[in-house]
Automatic annotation (TrEMBL):
Keywords: ATP-binding, Kinase, Nucleotide biosynthesis, Nucleotide-binding, Transferase. GO terms for cellular component: cytosol. The keyword Nucleotide-binding applies. The keyword Transferase applies. It comes from Candidatus Allocopromorpha excrementigallinarum. SUPFAM superfamilies: P-loop containing nucleoside triphosphate hydrolases. It holds the Pfam family Thymidylate_kin. Belongs to the thymidylate kinase family. ATP binds at G11, M12, D13, G14, S15, G16, K17, S18. It comes from the Bacteria. It catalyses: dTMP + ATP = dTDP + ADP. Residues 9-196 form the Thymidylate kinase-like domain. This is Thymidylate kinase. One of its GO terms (molecular function) is ATP binding.
Length: 206
């Protein structure tokens, strides 16, 4: 039986997810919530090994299906080993990326379409976020923000790929308006934090 709250953060690389995740965690802890912060790909020892394989720039020959299955494999382990047990203990789980990333990056970015949803039905095993904050920045802004740091295999992809990912997120937000909260992430860090807190106050009695 699920008792906790499952929150995921989504968005393009460079959308400012990490800062907001950290701030939300501190805020909820101050309010007395028990919070675990985790991420995908990764979140478990096995998942972190899978992450290294997926993001390794040397793995140029990796096929789309291999990539999609590896993300899903990392997710399956994460759901069973970390997310479900934490929710059962009544914790708030904040996850940096979840299944929407696969739909946007592999489904749209890699043009794999529905296959990605099929694969991930098994991986998530019915465990979906209660709320997802989609940090929206135009693709150019995101790529500008990651300019200068060493890029992983996905970040090295073309502008056309990232434009498709962006389209994927737009489509997801339209499809799941109850779950996905679109946050204008081009504003100041403090304003974005305020918006997110506002939603959280509506969900939790804090
Ligand atoms: P992330 O951890 O957000 O990157 P960073 O640590 O550099 O901020 O995610 C790694 C990359 O993996 C990112 O470019 C998005 C991509 N990704 C997918 O393509 N599919 C997925 O299912 C997930 C979870 C991530």
């Amino acid at each position: 039986m699920k008792k906790g709250l499952f929150i995921s953060f989504e968005g393009m690389d460079g959308s400012g997810k990490s800062t907001q995740i950290q701030r939300l965690k501190e805020y909820l802890e101050k309010k007395g919530c028990r919070v675990i912060l985790t991420r995908e790909p990764g979140g478990t020892p096995i998942g972190e090994k899978i992450r290294d394989i997926i993001l390794d720039r040397e793995n140029r020959e990796m096929r789309c299906m291999t990539e999609a299955l590896l993300y899903a494999a990392s997710r399956a382990q994460h759901v069973e080993q970390v997310i479900k047990p934490a929710l059962e203990e009544g914790k708030v789980v904040i996850c940096d990326r979840f299944v929407d990333s696969s739909i946007a990056y592999q489904g749209y970015g890699r043009s794999m379409g529905n296959a990605v949803e099929e694969i991930n039905r098994y991986a998530v095993a019915g465990c979906m976020p209660d709320v997802t904050f989609l940090m929206r920045v135009p693709p150019e802004t995101g790529s500008g923000r990651i300019e200068g740091r060493e890029k992983d295999r996905i970040e090295m992809e073309s502008d056309a790929f990232h434009t498709e990912v962006y389209r994927g997120y737009e489509a997801l937000a339209e499809r799941w308006p109850q779950r996905i909260v679109s946050v204008d992430a081009s504003g100041s860090v403090d304003d974005i934090e305020k918006t997110i807190r506002g939603y959280m106050k509506g969900i939790l009695d804090i």
